[in-house]
Amino acid sequence: MPPLAREVALPHTPRLLRVGPRLFLTTLGAFLLLGLPVAGLVSQGVSDGIHRSFAERSLRESRLVAALPPVVSALSGNAAERANLNALMNRYRDQLGADYVVVTDRDARRLTHPNPAQVGQRMQGGDFTAFLRGRSVTETVQGTLGRSVRSKVPIVDGSGRVLGLASVGFLLPRLRDVFLDVLRAGLPWYLLALGLALALALGVARRVKTEMLGLEPEQIAGGLRQYRAVLNTLEEGVLVARAGQVFVMNPQARALLGTPDAALPLPWPPGLPLPVPGAGPVTAEVAGRPVLLAAQEAGEGAVVVTLRDLARVRALADELTQSQRYAELLRAQTHEFTNRLHTLAGLLHLGETREALALIHAQSARHEAHLQAVGALRHVRLSALLLGKFDRAAERGVTLTLDPLSALPGTLPPGVLDGLELAAGNLIENALEAASGTPDAEVRVLIATDPEGLMLEVRDTGSGVPPALADTLTVRGVSSRGAGRGVGLALVSDRAQALGAALSHDRVRADGRDWTRFTLDVPLPEAEE
C-alpha cells in the first residue's frame, strides 16, 4: 500500500487502466496501427521489386537465348538444329531456373515449349507486332502455363532480318514464393522489434510508476485534490520553499502577501524573514500587517512555513485569557459560597439560628454593597468581572475597593469595552497577587472618564515592580513571579497600542502607605472632539 493511502482515501483504478497495462496496450496498438501499414507498404515495395527484378531477368535471358547460334541457325533453315532446338531450350531453361523458354517463328508459332504438345501452336497473350519491328517487350500476361512475367526479344540473322522471337518466362506463383520467402526472413526481425518496443514500454511504465510513488494517475489527481482542499480551507497561510523559491502557496498566504495572481515558483518575498525550522515562531510585518511565521522541515531541502495574522492570534489569546480569568473567578465564587454554606450548616446544627441569620444578612449586605458599587459602570460584563474579583480578593485575604467616583458612559467605541475588560481583569489579578500576604493587603480600582478620555487605575499595597524589570515588564515572558508567566501584561500592552492607549506604572504614597499604581489612559473620540 502506498504511504499516501494511509493519509488520503485514494480512488480505485481498474487493472487495465493502470499505468503498466495502459502503456503496454498503447504501445502495442500504436505499433500495430503504424507498423501494419508500413509493413504493407514495404511488402508492396518488395513485391514490386521482385516483379521488376524478374522482368529484367526475363529480358536479359531472353536476349541471351535470341543470340544463341543454334537458335539463329534453326530459324535460318538448319533442319538438324531445328529438330534438337526444343531439347536444347529445355536444358537451357533448367540452367536458367526459368519456368519456360519459348522460341517462335515470325508467325509466333512455337518451336519450343516445356509441354511438347504445345510445340507448333501459336503463342498466346501479349504484343506480337513489336518483335517484327525489331523491338523487345516485357509483359505480364496469361499463357498456357498460367499468368507469368516474360519478355519477347526478336531473333535476327546476320543481315538484320527478323526470324522469330525468343521468350523466357517466370510464372507468378514463383514470384509469390520468392516474396513469401522474403517476408518469412523479415518476420522475426519485425517480431523482435515489437518485443523490444513492448519490453521498453514495460520498463518505462515501471520507471514512471516509481517516480509517481507507486500511484496511478487518477490516484495522484485524487490525492492532489484532497490536499488542495485542505490547504485552501486552512485559516493560516502556508508556503513551501526550497532553495529560496516558493513552490506552494495557498490562497490565505497569497492574501497576506498580496500576490493573488502570481505564478509559481516565486522568489522568497523580500523583507520577509525565513524562520529557522523548529526554532519557534518569529514576527514580521507584511503590508503594514503584523504576522507570525513558523517553519518546519519537510525533507529533501523543503521548508513548510505557516503565516498567521498576529492580530487574530492576539485576539484569540485575549479571549483565552479572559476565559481563564472568568473560570478563576467562578472557582473563587464557588469556593467562597461553599465556605459560607458550610458555616451556615454548622451554625444551624449548633442551633445558633441568630448567628446564622446575622451571617446571611451580612453576606447579603456585602453583596448589595458590591452591586451598588459596580452599578455606575453600566456595562454588564465589566460589572460581572468586578463582582467576581471581589470574591477573588476575599479568597486571597485582600480588601478590594472600587472608587466611588467610578462611572462609565452608556456607550463606548467598538473594541474599547473588550480592551477595558482585558486590562481590568489582568491588572486587578496582578494587584491581588502582589498584595496578597502583606499586612492590611488592599487593592483600589478606579474606572472613570474625564475630558481626555477613559482611565483605568489599579493600586495595590504590594512591594512594587523590581527595578530590573521596570523597562521590560510588558514584554511577553517577562515576570517577577518566575518562568511560565508574563503573558497578561503583554496582552494588555498590545491591546492598548491597538486602541492608541497608554499603559504606565509608578509608585505613589497616599493615606500614609506606599502603593504600586498601574494606569491605562484610553483616548475616546468624543473626548477628542
From TrEMBL:
GO molecular function ontology, one term from the record: ATP binding
Transmembrane segments: 23-42, 187-205
Record key words, sorted: ATP-binding, Cell membrane, Kinase, Membrane, Nucleotide-binding, Phosphoprotein, Transferase, Transmembrane, Transmembrane helix, Two-component regulatory system
Classification via PROSITE patterns: HIS_KIN (PS50109)
GO cellular component: plasma membrane
Enzyme Commission number(s): 2.7.13.3
Pfam families: HATPase_c, sCache_3_2
InterPro entries according to UniProt: HATPase_C_sf, HATPase_dom, His_kinase_dom, sCache_3, Sensor-like_sf, Sig_transdc_His_kin-like_C, Sig_transdc_His_kin_SpoOB, TCS_sensor_his_kinase
Residue ranges annotated for the Histidine kinase domain, each copy included: 420-526
Keyword Membrane attributed: yes
Membrane topology category: Multi-pass membrane protein
Cellular localisation: Cell membrane
Coarse class of the protein's main subcellular location: membrane
SUPFAM superfamilies: ATPase domain of HSP90 chaperone/DNA topoisomerase II/histidine kinase, Sensory domain-like, Sporulation response regulatory protein Spo0B
SMART domains: HATPase_c (SM00387)
Catalytic reaction(s) noted: ATP + protein L-histidine = ADP + protein N-phospho-L-histidine
Xref: Gene3D superfamilies: 1.10.287.130, Histidine kinase-like ATPase, C-terminal domain (3.30.565.10), PAS domain (3.30.450.20)
Name of this chain's protein: histidine kinase
Organism: Deinococcus xianganensis
Lineage: Bacteria, Thermotogati, Deinococcota, Deinococci, Deinococcales
